[in-house]
Each structure stands twice: as C-alpha cells, then as structure tokens.
Amino acid sequence: MKWKHFVDSHKLATSLAILVMMALHDQWDNPTAWIYLALHGTYGILWALKSRIFGDKTWEQEITLLLGIALWAGLSFYWVAPWIVTSQAVQAPPWRTALCVSLFGFGVFFHFGSDMQKNITLKLQPGKLITTGMFARCRNPNYFGELLIYLSFVLLVFHWLPAVIFGIFIGYWFFRMYQKDKSLSRYPEFEAYRKQSKLFIPFLF
User: Fold this and answer.
1) pLDDT surpassing 90 at residue 3
2) pLDDT of residue 1
C-alpha cells in the first residue's frame, strides 16, 4: 500500500466522523457545527479529488500497514477541533464565522492552485525549477494555503488545544520545507530565487 491510501481515506472519513460527533452530542441545530462540517468535510473531499486528478508523487511511496495505521491515528488529532465544537456546543459569532469561510476560500486557492501549477509544469518541463506564477514570491504556496485552511478551522473552534495540535503539524511542515530547499539548492538559479522569494508566507517569511 501507499501513503496516499491512508491519507486519502482519512481525509474522506472526516465528514463521516464529524456527522457522528454531531449525532452523539445532538448538535443538529448548531450552525457552527454545520459550518465546520462544510469547511473541513469539503477540504477532505477536495484533497481526495486532487490526489486522484493531480496527486503529489510524495504520497505515491510504499508504506507498511503498521506505519499506515500509525499515520491514520496521527492524522486523527485533526478531529479534536470538531469534537470540541460538538461536545461543547461551540457557537461562533457571525463575524468570526465569515472570517473563517473567507480564510478557507483563500487557502483552497493557494493550496490547490499551486499544486496544479506544479503538476502541469513538471509534466511539460520535467526537472524545471518553478519560479513563476504562484511560486514567484513564495517557495511553498501549497503550505501557505494549508495554513489558511487549518487556521479557519482553529479560529472557528477558538480553543487552545486545536491550536497547539496545529502548531505541531506546522513544525513538521517546516521540516519538509527546509528539506525541499536543500533539494532545490542543486539548481544553479536557486540562490537568486531564494533571495527574491519567501519560504512560507508571501512577502513576510
């Protein structure tokens, strides 16, 4: 089996998991629970579609069943946020809900748009260092998009525990981003590109 089989199945299971939580805590009349389901559930479905249509080769690597189960369990920490929403009947104010929906929309744009650009560019020009379009000012616009997406989940819940969990995952993202920089340093033009772009957040960092 491959990494993507466990990641994709977990993403698809998110909607069902949230619905189960809503049922357990009788949150059918909680608009924040429904908004959370719409945001996080939609993201899971979009991820699975992306994986099938223009997936990242990183997730194509083989993985053992035991490691796959551990990965599935680790990703389940993302479900702490909807558990808090449903178990504590969180009611986000309208302005915060609107902010989260907006952040989610921008996040999807950067995350999936940059992955599509990378997929098409590498198919047409294999081995090319991508320095244009969504990668012109940010070397990891996909991670920036994910930052906005998960930030929308965290702000909707507005609880410290999902924020801490998300922070741990961001730490792993930094590890991956620095690994990528190290790999891209083999290109002669990378140093100039590094100086004109940011690692993670466009124009800031």
Assistant:
1) no
2) 83
